[in-house]
Every structure is written in C-alpha cells, then in structure tokens.
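Sequence in, structure out.
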Amino acid sequence: MLDRHRLVYVAGHEGMVGSALVRKLRQKGFNNFILRKRAELDLTDSVQTRDFFREHSPDYVYLAAAQVGGIYANNTYPADFIWNNLSIQSNVLKYAMEFKVRKLLFLGSSCIYPRMAPQPIKEEYLLTGLLEPTNEPYAIAKIAGIISCQSFNRQYGTNFISVMPTNLYGPNDNYDQLNAHVLPSLLRRFHEAQLQKQDKVVNWGSGSPRREFLHVDDLADACCFLMDHYDQSGIVNIGSGQDITIGELAELIADVVGFRGIIEWDRTKPDGTPRKLLDVSKLTALGWSYSISLEDGIRMTYEDFLRQPARARGMFAHDRSGDNQGA
C-alpha cells in the first residue's frame, strides 16, 4: 500500500485522465500533491524536467501526460505525436529514476497492440504483428515507453509499472469534431444536430468496427488499485471486457442526447481497426473490475458536457492536460 502522506506528482493533471486521477487519489486519502501546468513545466524540455525532479523529488508519479487525438489528428500530425510523446516519456522516466521516485505508473494505450490481434487482446500480444497505420506514430511512442519502464526496472531496480487502458471517456474530454476520439466526437455531433433541429447525422466509416469503452473514473480507480497491489514489469490491460459496434454506440448516444433523426455512415472515411477488445483477465484476477455501465457513463459525461460546453475544444487532450502534455 502506498503511503497516503507522501508527495504525489500527476503529470498531465488538467486533462481527462490526469484530473480523474487527482480526484480519485484525493478520495482515497492522498493529500500531498505537486501539480504543474505546461506553462509552468514543459515536459518535452529535458532541463526543465530535470530541475523539477531535482527540486521536488516526488515519491509517486502518475505519467498521464501525452499528446492524444483521434484518427484525423493522428493522420495529420504524425511527427508531433511521436516526437512529443517520446520526449515527455523519456524525460520523466529518466529523472524519475535519477531522483529515486519510489513508484511510477505509465499510462499506455490499447493502440500498442497489432491491428489484427486475436480478440480479446492479451498482454502478451504486444509486438506480435503490424500496428494500425492511422495511429502508428502514437502507438510506437507508447511501446517505447513500456520498454523504457521495463528496461529501467531491469537495469536500475526502479518500480515502474505500465497499464494499457481501453478507449476512455468522461469529464474533461476533448470534444473537437476533427481531433476528438469517437465517443466524445459523436456526443458533440448529436448534441449540435439536436440543437439545430437537423433530421440527419452523417458519421465517419461504416459503423461496423467494435470498440470497448471505459469511464475515466473507473480507469483512475484501477490505476490506484494497481499502484497499491502490483509491482511487476509486465503490462496490465484496463478495460470493461465488453465491446459494442460504433453503430450501436451512435444509437446509444443519440438516445441519451434526445436525437430522433436518421443516422447515416460515410463509408469513404476510414474505420480504423476492425475490433479492439482487451482481455482483462489479468486485472480481474488481481481483484479489480469496472463499476460504471456505458449508458450511465455516457449520461454522466453528457451532463458534464452541458455544464461546460466550451471545454476541451482544442486539438489536444492531456491525459492523459489541456496543455499539450496530457491523454
């Protein structure tokens, strides 16, 4: 169990995942945080990152800072995705080791797995096939982060663990139409169609790919659980273990929003990976499972969207921060 009074650094704390982590950690009794916005600390800058770790020496680190986005963003900004993510990860991991962080959690992504991996996807399928081309730079950066954590553990005896979340959604998500992930993008599209009294919504692709979704508060709970109970280098999948088609997701979101028009699909646009469902048996065996149903989670997310309609409209969502450092 982690000491609730030691210093915690959540990198990317303003984004969807980072803010959920801070909320959950506070609920669990942690009360000593060091938090920095990108304007205060640029994690792509090695000198700034070194000076931060040297001055503050955090005990526990949650590496949720990343540049993230949907299919359009990954296709349009591939160099940014790989360079920024490699830089953030490399700097944080290096100085976490050098300044003796007690434990670090690295947040990866389910896109690290081969495009045509057997379903559901087990942790051991990493590096067994070709990646999905539409997000390959981001995936390669995340794979490098995993291997870096494992390498630091082996060479320096650090305690760096890596988790692979499925598709996430929830408060502080990015709702930009071109750069958001599928669930928030659909939520905003149906919301605007409802406001404008449109009788039809056209979505990208065929609607046939299957995806798994997890509310970000469940992810944060799983991360806290693993920081307390897991100390191995092997990666751990985090998800619900259930998936639906994008078409079914669109219908569910339309119902939550109250849209009653026609849903059409533009098959000239890419679908991405045909199916992506994580095998979460390893995490289940450790004693954790999700608690927020998809329908309840979407309703909660839509309520947050309505309260703060202008939030997270820019290109990047920092997780996992609204400052180019979070997913």
